[in-house]
Write a structure and sequence with these properties.
alpha/beta, Rossmann fold, binds phosphoric acid mono(formamide)ester, binds norvaline
Length: 311
């Protein structure tokens, strides 16, 4: 790996100052283009003459459209493919794919089944690699979520975030960023779907304020933000067991009542109303989900600008 290449694969490998730079740039870019048509290019066009390749091993709506829109707003272009349409789908290695694409594009975004494939791609690539979701994390989404919280509630440092449900890839990325940005993270998960122990150990080693409980009420008490995600992530096979075990972890109105008075609700989408969250909460006044979805564009523009060395 060329160490000077700016990969965006795992938040814990970055430092707090880098995440701060990206969040501040995203907020500024969002403000600067208020009222503009979606396709208009930002004044500095930091991706002019650059192409992003996007490879999908799993389905996507937000990641696909937001990265495409982001590159257009940065003045660049994209090439998009599912892995199955590529020779990857017939067994060509990730490493050879990385070497070939590195000669053709300026950055690669991969949505992968296995996190190891993101790391292998980054290792063999001479252009920046961005994790567009894997079983190990969803760092672009977490940046959009933190941008959303800061826009609505001010600086994230010192805030309390409550994660309720499956200790999945989203939960991992929130754990990764906790020690870097100084928020408290309360996680309520059943023992069978607890967060990755390596992620927790790393966060605790770096003084991350991350607490794990099996009691959703304890996690949500006084929280500035309550977050839920699907109980069955892409690639999970034990659907019936998950729906049963996670049933007590539904975010409903009475759980939200325990949060801070001005506490908000976030969900990365797609959502399953009546499972991880009630319609009353996700479609209610405390829910920020549509701003959160839009913020995928703003956050990723700044992630891309950082990868290109423009910020
Ligand atoms: N939240 C998110 O990543 O959505 P998609 O799966 O639609 O990309
Ligand atoms: N945890 C979910 C997030 C989807 C955006 C999944 O991995 O399927």
């Amino acid at each position: 790996m060329t160490t000077s290449v700016r990969h965006f694969t795992d938040l814990w490998t970055l430092d707090g100052a880098t995440l701060r730079t990206i969040l501040d740039d995203a907020a500024a870019r969002q403000l600067a283009r208020k009222g503009w048509l979606q396709g208009r290019v930002d004044a500095d066009a930091p991706a002019r003459d650059r192409t992003l390749a996007m490879i999908f091993q799993k389905n996507s709506t937000r990641t696909r459209f937001s990265f495409d829109a982001a590159m257009r707003q940065l003045g660049g272009d994209v090439i998009i493919s599912t892995a199955n349409d590529m020779q990857l789908g017939r067994g060509e290695t990730i490493e050879d794919t990385a070497r070939v694409l590195s000669r053709m594009v300026d950055a690669i975004m991969l949505r992968a089944n296995r996190h190891e494939d993101i790391l292998a791609l980054a290792e063999a690539s001479t252009v920046p690699v961005i994790n567009g979701l894997s079983d190990g994390g969803h760092p672009c989404q977490i940046m959009a979520d933190l941008l959303t919280l800061e826009t609505h509630r001010g600086p994230i440092a010192g805030k309390t975030l409550a994660w309720v449900g499956d200790g999945n890839n989203m939960c991992s990325s929130f754990i990764h960023a906790a020690p870097l940005l100084g928020y408290r993270l309360n996680i309520a998960c059943p023992a069978d779907y607890a967060p990755n122990p390596d992620d927790l150990a790393r966060a605790w080693t770096h003084q991350g304020q991350v607490n794990v409980t099996t009691d959703p009420r304890e996690a949500v008490e006084g929280a500035d933000c309550v977050m839920a995600d699907t109980w069955v992530s892409m690639g999970d096979l034990d659907t019936e067991q998950r729906l049963k075990t996670l049933a007590p972890y539904q975010v409903d109105g009475s759980l939200m009542d325990l949060a801070a008075k001005d506490g908000v609700f976030l969900h990365c989408l797609p959502a399953h109303r009546g499972e991880e969250v009630t319609a009353e909460v996700i479609d209610g006044p405390r829910s920020l989900i549509w701003d959160q979805a839009e913020n995928r564009i703003h956050a990723q523009k700044s992630i891309l600008a950082w990868c290109f060395g423009a910020i």
